Amino acid sequence: MPANRSRSKSLRRGITVIAALPLLALAACGYGSKADDTDTAKVAAGSKKIDGLDSVKIGYFGNLTHATALVGREQGLFQKELGATKADYAIFNAGPSEIEALNSGSIDIGWLGPSPAINGYTKSNGKSLKIIGGSASGGVKLVVNPKKIKSLKDVKGKKIATPQLGNTQDVAFLNWAAEQGWKVDAQSGKGDVTVVRTDNKITPDAYKAGSIDGAWVPEPTASKLVAEGAKTILDESTLWPDQKFVITNIIVRQAFLKEHPKAVEAVLKASVEANKWINANPGKAKAAANKQLGIDSGKELPANVLDPAWKSIRFTDDPLAATLNTEAAHAVKAGLLEKPDLKGIYDLTVLNKVLKAAGESPVDAAGLGTS
User: Fold this and answer.
1) Burial (CB count <10 Å: 0-12, 13-18, 19+), residue 201
2) Bridge partners of 57?
3) DSSP 8-class letter at 340
4) Any idea what DSSP says for residue 44?
5) In angstroms, rounded to a whole number, what is the distance separating the alpha carbons of residues 132 and 355?
6) Exposure b/e, 335-355, CB count within 10 A at least 16 = b
7) Which segment of the chain is annotated as a signal peptide (predicted)?
8) What is the pTM assigned to this prediction?
9) Which of these, 85, 129, 224, 309, could form a disulfide with 219 (CB 3.0-4.6 Å)?
10) What is the pLDDT of residues 138-154, one digit of tens each?
């Protein structure tokens, strides 16, 4: 949807304000919740510190789309690869707070969605972060009240929730609505369909109260709504080639990557091991992710939410770089982002080294890698 210059300026200002709002349900203090230090992972006798570091600070969300980090932690894989260098963890509610923590040095490496990664990279003129690996694809659905919406065309005129203005799901829904020929003002959310920006933690209550007719949301929020009587009417993966699109990447502070490549390699090795174990042992991996989620949030997901949510997420080391570029183009089309220069946002050198050692194929940066 084209937008004039003044509106684009207003939209960008709106994104800056909204970016401070929480995206997920976990409580946090400061940049993120400092995780409990009572991990079961033990340091092997005779282990040495990597790059002379006392610790590596790792950030992630308490979300199933960050299950690579959840499983890697619960299984002790990060600590195993880091040896006598301690794996420290911080749990975040939203991308903007994790980017802030990365920029301040409060974390070194993190699991993060595509939109905040793009915003963090562009706002720093390409100086703050690098995407160094993939983690997950999919796990986003349009779920609706079946009494009010029988088919996709019935979405017109209804109230649909997205997590926050300008976030990954918000951009995806605005783009999908535009492809239906519907007009929506991106900033206000008003138009042929009303977009209601609602924190994921209260979206199920908003649905039960009837203040929204559906939601375009990530897992496990989508499955929580289904458990309340909603129906999945569209899985976003069906809109993408090969049904793959990036939902979670691994990012690193650029200075940390330059100064401590061996530590970055250790974390990426653990991530690759975690994804391999997840894909080979889906049942055990699901239980491990939920166990860690319960430790982090104080409550595990019930089976009627966990099971369908887990099935819709694919775990991959490939960052699916071409889809990141497409997601950025959708944000530009909606008037939520000026055309960004993403050249250099990826540095997959260390990941491809790890993949080669594991006998796996290298992954591609789709022309957006470090030259």
Assistant:
1) middle
2) 88
3) P
4) P
5) 12
6) bbbeebebeebbbbbbbbebb
7) 1-27
8) 0.84
9) 309
10) 999 999 999 999 999 99
Note the pLDDT tens digit of each residue in 13-63. Answer: 343 333 333 333 333 333 455 544 445 566 666 678 998 999 999 999 988
* 164 band by pLDDT with thresholds 50, 70 and 90: confident
Residue ranges, comma separated, of all CATH 3.40.190.10 domains in the chain are: 5-138+245-357, 140-242
DSSP string covering 99-128: HHHHHHTS-SEEEE-HHHHHHHHHHTTT-S
Amino acid at 133: G
Q: What is each CA distance from 153 to 176, 229, 330, in whole angstroms?
A: 12, 20, 21
Location of structure tokens 């040896």 = 83
Q: How far apart are CA 1 and CA 169, in angstroms?
A: 17
Determine the Cα–Cα distance for residues 50 and 261; give it in Å rounded to an integer. Answer: 10
**Looking at the domain 5-138+245-357, which fold is it?**
D-Maltodextrin-Binding Protein; domain 2 (3.40.190)
DSSP string, 223-253: HHHHHTT-EEEEEGGGGSGGG--EEEEEEEE
User: For strand 194-197 and strand 55-61, is the pairing parallel, antiparallel, or unpaired?
Assistant: unpaired
Domain 140-242 architecture: 3-Layer(aba) Sandwich (3.40)
For 19, the token pair is 């970016």
Scan for tokens 């996709």, then name that residue.
152
Contact present, 219 and 204 (Cβ < 8 Å): no
Pairwise CA distance, residues 187 & 100, whole Å? 24
Find where tokens 């887990």 sit: 310
Q: Kindly state the tokens that stand for 64.
A: 């199933």
